[in-house]
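$ run holo --ligand "protoporphyrin IX containing FE" --emit tokens
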Amino acid sequence: MKEPIADACPFRHPLDQGPDGINRPGLYLNERYHEIRDSGTGVVEVMRIAGGTAKLVTRYDDVVMVLRDPAFSRERALPFDDVAGLDGTLLGLDGPGHSRVRRLVSDHFTPRAIGALRDRIERCTAARLQAMLSSGSSADLVADFALPVALETITDLLGLPEADRTDFYHWSRAFLSHSTLSPQEAEASLFAMYDHLSRLLRHRRETPVGDLLSQIAADGAGLPEHQQVMLPIALLLGGWETVASNIATFTQVLLSHPYGTYDSAWPYRPRPSPARSVAP
Ligand code: HEM
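-- output --
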């Protein structure tokens, strides 16, 4: 084992922030993460963008333990760290409160339910690829493929009207662009999305159409309004850019490291644990 890394602790986190405070992560993990993970306890104190310090846990087994052990609480952390309005969302609840909200949507995320989306996703993927091929000699994988395919999938799953999707695209992009927009601009996008979803949920409660939004409107009617509205927002924000980034990242990974050329220098290390369920 290497010696613990010496540094004028705490680190600034995320570790890819430039001197201007903007985070510019690349495809590969910042070398610092490897150093931290491979030395000492694998846990260091970091300084958050929003201010204050936190512990950065870098080893897989420790992360699993933190996520599973009820000694670690999301709710108790919120008063110190609710920069993203997570109060009342799945990412801000513990125990029975968390289970109550999660139960509202969990039947839409079983392997069988996700499998039923396969045809629709394949059609959407083929249409986007065809459009890229038809547009000429070059295309932008992120803008023309990854972002729209991921957004169409998650908005289909929720049942957001086609006519509203451009608005959701802009609101979500703005909300997620913490490093390029001011907190006020990000907040304004969240409010706009919140108002719109609140109206949609009321509408679905009066006129259900069998989609996930109608289910949240009906089964979540007993929850505070904030929790009802933040649930589809969490699904949209949590399920969109994560998937889009991974489509782009792993396209690059497969192009640069085709199957069969796996080597010990490759920074992503496979974990042997089989996938049991699908988010959330
Ligand atoms: C490759 C894509 C994805 C990645 C890398 C990813 C990553 C993660 C991680 C690390 C967490 C745990 C966060 C924590 O507990 O602090 C999480 C939770 C969650 N994710 Fe994802 N996610 C992905 C796709 C999705 C999708 C497609 C959806 C929704 C359609 C989604 C919705 C959620 C929700 C709602 C939670 C909270 C779950 C709970 O607390 O019970 N994610 N995700």
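-- notes --
The chain is about 55% helix and 5% strand.
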